[in-house]
Amino acid sequence: MHKGSISVQTENIFPIIKKFLYSDHEIFLRELVSNAVDATTKLKTLSGKGLIKGDIGETAIEILLDEEAKTLTIRDRGIGMTADEVEKYLNQVAFSSATEFVEKYKDDASIIGHFGLGFYSAFMVASKVEVRTLSYQDGAKGVTWACEGNPEYTLEDNDKDFRGTDVILHINEESKEFLGNSRIEQLLDKYCKFLPVPIQFGTRTETITEGEGDEATEKEIEVDNIINNPDPAWRKAPADLTDEDYKAFYNELYPFSTPPLFWIHLNIDYPFNLTGILYFPKLGNSFEVQKNKIQLYSNQVYVTDDVKEIVPEFLTLLHGVIDSPDIPLNVSRSYLQSDGNVKKITGYITKKVADKLAELYKKDEEGFISKWDDLGVFVKYGMISDDKFYDRSVKFALVKNIDGKYFPIEQYKEEVKAQQTDKYDKVVMLYTHAPEQHDSFIAAAKAKGYDILVLDHVIDNHFMQHMEHKLGGITFVRVDSDTVDNLVQKDEQAESVLSEEQQESVKGLFEAIVTSTGSTVMLKPLSPEDQPVTITRPEFMRRMKEMQGLQGMSFGDFPDSVNVVVNTNHPLVANKLVEEPDADKQKEVADYLYKLAMLNQQMLKGAELTAFINKSLNFLK
Ligand SMILES: Nc1ncnc2c1ncn2[C@@H]1O[C@H](COP(=O)(O)OP(=O)(O)OP(=O)(O)O)[C@@H](O)[C@H]1O
């Protein structure tokens, strides 16, 4: 037996590890299993080069839990270590790199906790760590290194008879959770799901069928429980994968979810290394809830699902996996943001996504259109937030009209130009966010030969604002924002059949009825075919208010701004109302017309609505 003292360059590291590493203790398992994987990969490499004679045999890594002995063991059948190597790698390399790391990041506990310290993170959860190891080299002798979380360690020979390393953790009092089967299972699933070496944790029962036809019997057998898929889809060549393989992998990542719309296989080795698969999920009208689903890996080791720094914000709506050994992982956020490689990766991913969409649109326009309702959100979000993406995608950014036809927005502008250009030379793109609710406005606009778009997603206000600015020469106007004659403003002036005096009296009549703040009464000589009274919501104020609401800002109690437009050429106004001799009756008619307009804009509610219905029923008596 040999005793020694770990050379301490700085003050004792163990209290520092315990003090600073309070967050994410669980990372120790990832670190130790990664070391086991490294040792196994090294062995395979040596064998591949013919440097190890004969068959290397079993290489699976095992995780063993002994609740009674309170130990958790990580067992590999990798290269192992000689006594000299243990001294060098565990006492010097591992120790000095851990010391350096803690020194560097001790003011940012979250970083240390998150990224671990390699081998020494074992001391976050263990009061004692034993390493029993046997090197692959001919004639090597087994050695056991043990350390109880202080600078003293022991090293002694053992009789280990199979190549590889057991790291035995004597779990400390505060970390008892790591003696639970399901907790370990959960951690392995989180961090080790796609590690490149099979990892076994206990056994599981499997039902197999023996014999054939009528003779067939079902039997339960115990098999090794391999918790990982060592050869995940993203590491394979796209040519070797079918659509079913991609879907199956999606299901592996997100069990029980709706199949994705399509995917992009990323594969680049210059100027940085990156592989991965990004999936476009079915989003429908939802938005926020889907974020943070992309998982970041480094050589198949799970790192995080917080990829904000690597993937442009709008693409965090995507799902899938990115794997890059080139992303500097154990550094701070601010460093990531300014890192040149990370910027290049972001740019590359954006370009790949835009190219894939362009290709889909070109190759299969119909298929692309059929996916647009789900895809539109990404594309719009991307166009708003990333100029380069805008330039690439404006060609295939679609808008849908009320008849369910889709057009690229630039082409749509040309389609409606002749009918819908206003006196300021802008093409007015009319839209509704709720076709049912705007039925009468839509009917009026259609009768005038206008086309109407459906823009009903929460992102659309921002999208419209952005397109007005970027595309230029267009303005979006909601179909209920003005009376139909004024949706596309022209210079034509219609004549009113009422005298000025009559107009004054009609205006006064309505002003006495319309008392809510924010409402303005206006008279207009519209077509006799149009509604007698229409309530419109001016585009600018409404859109501003909605956009601020979306950003969590508030206009305070700013009332809805609406116009109550009275059509002075409608017979019910021009004849019935004006000619009515009885003042009370006149007021009643005006009020009824106003209520109908409110009803049309879904503004009639509560007691007012009940009174209106009762009044209408009385007419039928
Ligand atoms: N299971 C193992 N089998 C063989 N050698 C090991 C094993 N675990 C650790 N080592 C040796 O100890 C060294 C130090 O390990 P440690 O985990 O601290 O650092 P690392 O793996 O080099 O880097 P990282 O901090 O990224 O984990 C390793 O480089 C390796 O040589």
TrEMBL record:
Q: Carries keyword Transmembrane helix?
A: no
- One MF term in GO for this entry? ATP-dependent protein folding chaperone
Q: Which positions does UniProt annotate for ATP binding?
A: 31, 35, 76, 81, 165, 333
* Alphabetized Pfam families for the sequence: HATPase_c_3, HSP90
Q: Where is the Histidine kinase/HSP90-like ATPase domain?
A: 24-175
State whether keyword Transmembrane applies: no
Database matches in SUPFAM superfamilies: ATPase domain of HSP90 chaperone/DNA topoisomerase II/histidine kinase (SSF55874), Ribosomal protein S5 domain 2-like (SSF54211)
Domain of life assignment = Bacteria
The alphabetized UniProt keywords are: ATP-binding, Chaperone, Cytoplasm, Nucleotide-binding, Stress response
> So what family is this one in?
Belongs to the heat shock protein 90 family.
Output this protein's name. Answer: Chaperone protein HtpG
What organism does the UniProt record list as the source?
Phaeodactylibacter luteus
